Amino acid sequence: xxxxxxxxxxxxxxxxxxxxxxxxxxxxxxxxxxxxxxxxxxxxxxxxxxxxxxxxxxxxxxxxxxxxxxxxxxxxxxxxxxxxxxxxxxxxxxxxxxxxxxxxxxxxxxxxxxxxxxxxxxxxxxxxxxxxxxxxxxxxxxxxxxxxxxxxxxxxxxxxxxxxxxxxxxxxxxxxxxxxxxxxxxxxxxxxxxxxxxxxxxxxxxxxxxxxxxxxxxxxxxxxxxxxxxxxxxxxxxxxxxxxxxxxxxxxxxxxxxxxxxxxxxxxxxxxxxxxxxxxxxxxxxxxxxxxxxxxxxxxxxxxxxxxxxxxxxxxxxxxxxxxxxxxxxxxxxxxxxx
Length: 339
Description:
- This protein is of the alpha/beta class.
- It is 26% helix and 28% strand.
- The protein has 9 helices and 19 strands.
- The strands form 7 sheets. The chain has a 5-stranded parallel sheet with strand order 16-13-17-18-19, with helices on both faces. Strands 4-2-8-9 form a 4-stranded antiparallel sheet, with no helix packed on it.
- β18, α8 (301-309) and β19 (313-316) form a beta-alpha-beta unit.
- α4 (187-206) runs antiparallel to α5 (232-241) and α7 runs parallel beside α8.
C-alpha cells in the first residue's frame, strides 16, 4: 500500500486535478486517480495498492499532478517529491525446523562424532600465525595449501551451519555481454535465491548459528563474510539485493575462512555447475564436517560425480514440494545421496 500526503502550499485554493505515480515495470497495480480541490494550506491523503513480483530494489515516484487552468484551455503538470526506494525481499518456502530434520538438537553433534569419534574434539587446520608453536603444525594441510597451517581444536558442541550461494551467472544459464550479464533476472538464479532464503529461515528458527556466504557479485561488494549477516532480516536484505555475476568456483578467501572454523553442516546452493566449475567447488567440501550441495536438475552426471567424489552429498530440487521433502529427509549422517 502506497500512501501519499498532498499539501497545497499556496495561499489560494487549488482546482480539481489528477495525480499519477511513476511505477517500475515489476509493479502490478493502478497508481492514478482524481484529486479534489483543496483550500489554501490544506492537505489530503490518497493511497493505492499493488504488488511487486520481483525481489530487489525498486523505485516508486516521483508523483505527477496534472492541473487545468481556470478556463480548462491548458493543462500544467507538476512533479512532486523524490523517488522512494522499496526493497522487496525474496519469496520463501516454509520448511520444517532443521533440528527436526536432523533427528533432534544433538544431530549435528552426532555428525561430528561420526568423524572424530564419540566424546572427541575435532582437530581442524587454520593459517599459521607468528607465535604458534611449531609442534602444532598440520603438515598434511600445509602440503595441500602450500602455506603453513596449524592444528586447532574445534569442540563438538558448537552447532554452526554455513550456507553458500553460488551467484555465478554461468551456472544459471546466463550469458556474458559487453556490459556484463545478459539479464539479471535469470529464473534459475531466482529459484536458487528462494532455496537459500527458505533454508536460512529454517536454520535460524531452530536456533543454530548461521553464516551466509556468496560467491559472485555480493550485495555490498566482495563476499558476505561470516558474522556479517547477524539475523534472518540481514540475510534476506542481502539476498534481496544480490545479482548474478561471472565468478565461478569457491573463492580462496572463503575456503580459508571456513577452514579456520569448520561448520558442523555446510550447505551450498550451486545451480548447474559444469565439470570445470565442479572441480573448483570440490575443495570447499573439506571445510565442513558434513557437506550438502543443492544442484539444478539439469546438472550433468559427470559434474555431480565430481562433487560426490569430493564428499559432497548432492540433492536435486526443482519445485517447492521437492525442496520441502528433501529438507525433511535430511538426517544427521547425510550419508545417502538423493537424486
